[in-house]
């Protein structure tokens, strides 16, 4: 998703240096495989379910560590976790020569002790407007290509060696395609070494340093139809084709799946408009030999009615239709929501509703109660054909 949605980044920059992760050696795997959990239902078809989480600012009512009610939902429903922000350069690399993994270490410690599998998001987030300030103005010297490559290699090596096999999958590069043009984004890094060279260095280094890990290219192209969506999709396909031609070790496409109820139309009409072109895109992706991962699922309900009951039903129906399409592909593996509780969702601050109400795009509401969306996800998982069938 484009980073407007991540205006909340600044809120998380305060380090939780004094916070403590839970210490009990409990297994999320054993709890989340209980009959009826979302993870257990996903496992019926050979898949897994999980969620993003945030460490958050010290003392804030934010994320699983700060709120035991949220932690309980994660531990009950999920088998996988992914950090929302804490592995991004803004958090881990305050300067060219300095790393800071305090927040990420806490998340890894929590995930390990509670028995979660852990994804790494992300080794490089491509849009320059979300680089740390020092990188935007960085001088790569008289040999910029070599200097930029050395910086990227150092970063991947440092992260991958620190966490080893505790991270099973990486979004190696996130959002490298400019949606308006379909080209690789023009940034201080790509100007130093070239866009394709930058991408290839990232993936080849990740392969060397984390040979056990699934290596993912992650992006936010959407199944809703529009001119920008079409251009974005074409650019992603071109990028994936280039990876295959050059032998770049990319295992899967991460489909962020921030789906959008943005049209004032019946759900069936929106789905009818979207499904055909979206399937043609997915067919091309899997036809190149890529697996699929849903990396950041939620529903933007900006155009849904104010009435909460009606809105929740529309969100649930729309999500079910989308997930049914995605789950029809045996190449789809893990499914991760971008959070589990509306109280902590980036959606409310992004593209706000006219009534200024909290958006209801996650499985649980602000009071940690399950919504129709949770049941729609469960039903989609329960009815999914086998990943290996």
TrEMBL record:
Signal as UniProt keyword: yes
InterPro entries registered for this protein in UniProt: GH (IPR017853), GH10 (IPR044846), GH10_dom (IPR001000), TAT_signal (IPR006311)
EC number: 3.2.1.8
Domain GH10: residue ranges: 59-380
Keywords recorded for this protein, A-Z: Carbohydrate metabolism, Glycosidase, Hydrolase, Polysaccharide degradation, Signal, Xylan degradation
Any Pfam family: Glyco_hydro_10
Gene Ontology biological process terms, A to Z: xylan catabolic process
SMART domains: Glyco_10
Signal peptide limits: 1-21
Family designation: Belongs to the glycosyl hydrolase 10 (cellulase F) family.
Protein name: Beta-xylanase
Source organism of the structure: Sphingomonas parva
């Amino acid at each position: 998703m484009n980073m407007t949605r991540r205006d909340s980044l600044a809120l998380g920059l305060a380090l939780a240096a004094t916070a403590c992760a839970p210490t009990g050696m409990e297994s999320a795997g054993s709890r989340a495989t209980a009959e009826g959990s979302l993870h257990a239902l996903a496992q019926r078809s050979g898949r897994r379910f999980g969620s993003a989480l945030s460490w958050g600012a010290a003392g804030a009512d934010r994320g699983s560590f700060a709120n035991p009610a949220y932690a309980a939902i994660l531990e009950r429903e999920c088998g996988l976790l992914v950090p929302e922000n804490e592995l991004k350069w803004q958090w881990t690399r305050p300067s060219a020569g300095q790393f800071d993994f305090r927040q990420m270490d806490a998340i890894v410690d929590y995930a390990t002790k509670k028995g979660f599998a852990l994804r790494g998001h992300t080794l490089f987030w491509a849009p320059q407007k979300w680089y740390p300030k020092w990188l935007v103005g960085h001088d790569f010297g008289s040999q910029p290509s070599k200097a930029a490559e050395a910086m990227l290699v150092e970063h991947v090596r440092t992260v991958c060696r620190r966490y080893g096999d505790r991270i099973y999958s990486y979004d190696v590069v996130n959002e490298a395609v400019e949606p308006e043009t379909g080209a690789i984004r023009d940034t201080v890094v790509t100007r130093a070494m070239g866009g394709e060279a930058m991408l290839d260095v990232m993936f080849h280094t990740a392969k060397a340093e984390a040979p056990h890990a699934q290596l993912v290219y992650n992006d936010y192209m959407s199944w809703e139809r529009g001119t920008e969506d079409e251009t974005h999709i074409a650019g992603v396909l071109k990028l994936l084709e280039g990876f295959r031609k050059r032998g770049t070790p990319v295992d899967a496409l991460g489909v962020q799946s921030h789906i959008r109820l943005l049209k004032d139309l019946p759900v069936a009409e929106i789905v009818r408009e979207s499904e055909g072109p979206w399937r043609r895109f997915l067919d091309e992706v899997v036809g190149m030999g890529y697996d699929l991962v849903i990396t950041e699922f939620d529903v933007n309900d900006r155009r849904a009615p104010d009435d909460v009951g009606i809105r929740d039903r529309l969100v649930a129906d729309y999500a079910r239709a989308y997930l049914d399409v995605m789950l029809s592909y045996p190449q789809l593996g893990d499914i991760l929501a971008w959070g589990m509780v509306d109280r902590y969702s980036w959606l409310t601050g992004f593209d706000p509703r006219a009534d200024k109400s909290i958006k209801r795009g996650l499985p649980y509401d602000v009071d940690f109660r399950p919504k129709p969306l949770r049941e729609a996800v469960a039903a989609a998982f329960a009815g999914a054909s086998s990943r290996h069938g």
